[in-house]
Task: structure prediction
Amino acid sequence: MTQGIPLQLSHDQMKALGTQALDLVIEHFETNRENPVAVTIPRAQTEQMLRTPLPEQATPVSELVEILARDVFPNALKSDHPRFYAFVPSPTNFVSVIGDLLISGHNLFAGHWMAASAAGQIEINVIDWLNQLVGFPAKEGGGILVSGGSMANLSAIATAREARLGGPNEKAIVYCSDQTHSSMAKGLRILGFRPEQKRTIATDDGFRLSIRALEAAIAADRAAGLLPFCVVANAGTTNTGAIDPLGPLADLCARERLWLHVDGAYGAAAVITDRGKKALTGMGRADSITLDPHKWLFQPYELGCLLVRESTTLQKAFRVEDEDHADYLEDVTRWVKNDVNFYECGVQLTRSFKALKLWLSMRTFGLAEFRRAIDIGFDMADHAERTLRAAGTWEITTPSQMGVVTFRWKDGSKSAAQIDAITRATVDLMREDGYALVMSTALEHRPVLRLCPINPGTNSSEIEETIARLGRFSAEVGARG
Ligand SMILES: Cc1ncc(COP(=O)(O)O)c(C=O)c1O
Result:
């Protein structure tokens, strides 16, 4: 690089780098299906390939991009691959990818109104759209874009605690189900809750939180002089897609004056479809909802969101008052009054203009196209269930719901322990095979296979081929005895 202003590229250098990088991304979008869905290499190999000393001297950036293309991007799980059926897949869209480029290229500080007023307006607009979709009241609702579901869940509990109890209280009790995502336990610990302040409520045979067990736990806690203040419901558990009884839970929380938080990190977005809306009836009666656009709204990482029924509850939880307020931020609030300062609505002060990518893609494609994309996920999971049933060799442990189906090999001559061993071996063989990524989860302490085919780029023949291979592997392992 030449002398001059440090860290700058010439016009031509910027164009050349931009073209090289963009070509790489376009190639990824165009050839993803043909590439391996999951590659993990050992630490010894990555050390050898990628460990370098502190770079005192410059290296041509084109060489570095080549290293990324050759050694880094291929050696990963491709959560946007059409045959990535594990975890919660993260299919993206090219418009939002360009949105990410615009976000970092302009590097707007989206922490307060003075710094990025029009960007703030876009964030407010995006939050309003999401509030409308989940059924929160038009004017009062608010929210904040965050890094993902873990941060949204943590922020929700901080908000609930402030709203219902006015701050930390060692008698405070939170209720979750045995299917609640582990990010909730992590968030509670970070917020200073001890393990005994979290109640894990049993679920019914559909893995939905049991209202009766919850009522009994609340009554017992009140009788013991404790302070129940928040119930966490699931709108699509990660394990099975189960949705807790949201309407009855809203009734119970209203009766008991408890905050209802709905973790819809991956499932809540399905409310834009007819099937999702029906399944999620009652969600709009919650006090707060986690909805991650980087899951079922097709956005690149990191884009999570916490929505709240009453926007003022966020400021109550996160605004640092008077004497603790940062002196160097005083002008910001003196010059611009009564507009939204996002740093007062969440954990971060410095935050990027995350709303841009969701805004850009929602406006570019329109909601109908997102609806179509989510509907394909529902269809593919239904198709997987039908294919499994038709094969006659599978036990459906949970039917297709919210784009998830779970199952295990069926063979009356085998014990439960043998079937469990077949399940584990089948996952291993499928991973070695490499056609698709399918993984297991555990239900009632037993492993099951799990398919989450929510990438709108997948198709029924890929689902059928995946199930055929799973069947071959399970039969092979079973035959070995
Ligand atoms: C239901 C649910 N909640 C929370 C999370 C955590 O979200 P994140 O990984 O974005 O932090 C996940 C992740 O899959 C999830 O499925």
Remarks:
- The first strand starts at residue 142 and ends at 146.
